[in-house]
TrEMBL record:
Native source organism of the sequence: Croceicoccus marinus
Matching InterPro entries: Fe-S_metab-assoc_dom
Superkingdom classification of source: Bacteria
SUPFAM superfamilies recorded: SufE/NifU
Family membership: Belongs to the SufE family.
Protein name, as recorded: SufE family protein
UniProt domain Fe-S metabolism associated: residue ranges: 14-132
Length: 141
């Protein structure tokens, strides 16, 4: 997965439909999420499209817990937005994810002005889910 900074750099040079195409491409680059993980428990509430986010833990070389997220959506552009959010936190230590300013990382994309409110309404809920998960895992040690 590309870093959020690399994606922002590319996005900055695109306009209109090209930005939509980049979002769709990002969504396609997400690793496939097994259908068995697409449950009510992993579904992000408040999204106009169906969105699922499933966190996994991966032990890191320093003994800490890194979070790896699997995610999916049934709408191409929404899936790209999901990929953007995940890119801001993917494979980082749980404590770092909990403290990450995800909204700040997404600011260069100006999603509220680039996309309809229907496409972005679930983003705060997705961010809240990621933060809650990361905080819980960081506290567990």
């Amino acid at each position: 997965m590309r870093s959020i900074d690399d994606i922002a750099e590319e996005y900055e040079f695109l306009e209109g439909d090209e930005r939509y195409r980049l979002l769709i491409e990002l969504g396609r680059e997400l690793e496939p999420m097994p259908a068995a993980l697409k449950t009510e428990a992993t579904q992000v509430k408040g999204c106009s499209a169906a969105v699922w986010v499933y966190p996994t833990r991966a032990a890191s070389e320093d003994g800490g817990n890194r979070l790896h997220f699997m995610a999916d959506s049934n709408a191409a552009i929404t899936k790209g937005i999901v990929a953007l959010v995940i890119a801001a936190v993917q494979d980082r230590p749980a404590a770092e994810v909990a403290d990450t300013d995800i909204e700040g990382a997404l600011a260069p994309f100006d999603l509220r002005n680039q996309l309809s409110s229907n496409r972005t309404q679930g983003v705060p809920n997705m961010i809240a889910l990621i933060r809650e998960t990361a905080s819980r895992i960081a506290a567990e040690g």
